[in-house]
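Annotated sample (chain length 270).
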Amino acid sequence: MTSVGDQEANFATCQRLAVEAKEAGCCMLFLPECCSFIGRNQQETVSVGEPLNGPAMARFQDLARSTGVWLSLGGFQETGPDPDHIYNTHVILDADGALVTSYRKVHLFNVEVHNGPVLMEARSTAPGTQLIACDSPAGRLGLTVCYDLRFPEVYQRLAFEHGAEIMLVPSAFTKATGEAHWELLLRARAVETQCFVIAAAQAGKHNEKRESYGHALIIDPWGDIIGKLDDPHATGIAVADLDFAKMAKIRERMPIKNHREQGKTCLGWK
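Output written by the structure step:
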């Protein structure tokens, strides 16, 4: 999707996608980072921050109930620790609209993009402090957001310590970094953890200052792409069935988790 600085318009898009997911027989819909709002500046973004029991989240809870589809809201502007900061929070809602869990993005995007914008997320966003995994009808989910993708230890801990089977990477990757690294890093995270990766993505121009790469992907534990949009910049959903028997065979034939523990023992790592 292409979020803009209009919460009503963005929710209408999310609503349409949720109905499409229900009609396609999906048990869960994964929406990208900033699915509810992308502003023109950090002040706008902070101004829309709400607690997770506020009216903006209540609408998404109603949407989950009305469709009977679990929702992953990839990055919601949650009220932060002070008036100048929000949390970038990944929220999981069940089919009854209950809040299952939430993850506050740990790694903030403070980067001068080559041939692109300077984005300093920490100026308006406070970091989280915990890794989160939870069970769902799709499988056991490991929650991350966007820039977390560049820190492989996050995904290894989610897989090998928290038992995650599906890594969620909802994102608003910039066009320049997406062209260079998006698919490469997603497939690497799938292969090294032997997990599925579901990467919902913002796409296209949000305003005169910001553009996202798009290319939402679903990847299996062997690194194969099993779901994507025909038009990588379009608004829509990619649908896939997750083959957990294949995942089990991959893990049995190449027991990375066991080998990782052996390697830690040999090297004296904790």
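Annotation: The chain has a mean pLDDT of 96.
Annotation: The first strand starts at residue 28 and ends at 33.
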